[in-house]
Amino acid sequence: LQMADEALFQFLHSEIIQYVNSAETGESENGRCVSKLENMGFRVGQGLIERFTKDTPRFKDELDVMKFICKDFWTSVFKKQIDNLRTNHQGIYVLQDNKFRLLTQLSAGKQYMEHAPKFLAFTCGLVRGALSNLGVKSIVTAEVSVMPACKFQVMIQKM
Amino acid sequence: LQMADEALFQFLHSEIIQYVNSAETGESENGRCVSKLENMGFRVGQGLIERFTKDTPRFKDELDVMKFICKDFWTSVFKKQIDNLRTNHQGIYVLQDNKFRLLTQLSAGKQYMEHAPKFLAFTCGLVRGALSNLGVKSIVTAEVSVMPACKFQVMIQKM
């Protein structure tokens, strides 16, 4: 049954990408597509974290919040934890997923790398939305090194 | 964790509706929106059923297929079974869900009824796609009686 949920999410996610990609036409279509997907992710992230943290005690600091995202939040959405979390202790966190679920559908060839940003935008928004609802304002970007491994970089915005 | 998956699906589903709704502008925008959503559902239904039935023995007849949709398929997507299945034994099946998950987000007032088709289109496509991959060609429509109860009508297309 868990496999079913995962499949449902993956299929829906790729339908969204295809649709947004085809609906956004115009000069800067690629940028708009990515930003629409990021915004969707943001709202979904906000909604999810509200449900997940209803019974969770408050976090003691920013690192504690990031650990929650890497373990509990990631597991509930992607069925695995983040493989590696690093920080410079000055507001930058790098979350590495060695087998990112939403990239495993994309073939591994170099010719597909140009599509990778579209496959990461929703998740960047998801993390930004989740953090935002936990009181942490951030900018989240992503990069693929060797598919399906990728890194999400979270830059905390101090208020 | 199951609640998390359900929430993820619900949030994604409502993001898709909102986005498709805003992207489809023009003369017959409402009809196009519903048909886009139905098509997305169709492809997702095809994909899901392929995974679900990999290890399932072949079905003995059309009714057997419908029962699988009402029990196993519905449970994996909506976390409950169809409450009632009826047929006229001439190719029409009515699947009733007394508490349809994707309608529970909509408020129950009469003024929201006009939005109901948009909230049912994806699922109509989902059923049509699943059946199609099991070799059953159909037309699937839906109607809301009292929210969040609804009925999906499947008309088998004989080939």
UniProtKB/TrEMBL annotation, chains A, B:
UniProt source species: Sinocyclocheilus grahami
Role: Component of a transport protein particle (TRAPP) complex that may function in specific stages of inter-organelle traffic. Specifically involved in the early development of neural circuitry, likely by controlling the frequency and amplitude of intracellular calcium transients implicated in the regulation of neuron differentiation and survival.
Short name of any one Pfam family annotated for the protein: TRAPP
Highest taxon listed in the record's lineage: Eukaryota
SUPFAM superfamilies named in the record: Ligand-binding domain in the NO signalling and Golgi transport
Subcellular location: Endoplasmic reticulum; Golgi apparatus, cis-Golgi network
UniProt-listed GO biological process terms: endoplasmic reticulum to Golgi vesicle-mediated transport; nervous system development
Family under the similarity heading: Belongs to the TRAPP small subunits family. BET3 subfamily.
Name assigned to this protein: Trafficking protein particle complex subunit 6B
Keywords: Endoplasmic reticulum, Golgi apparatus, Neurogenesis
One Gene Ontology term, aspect cellular component: cis-Golgi network
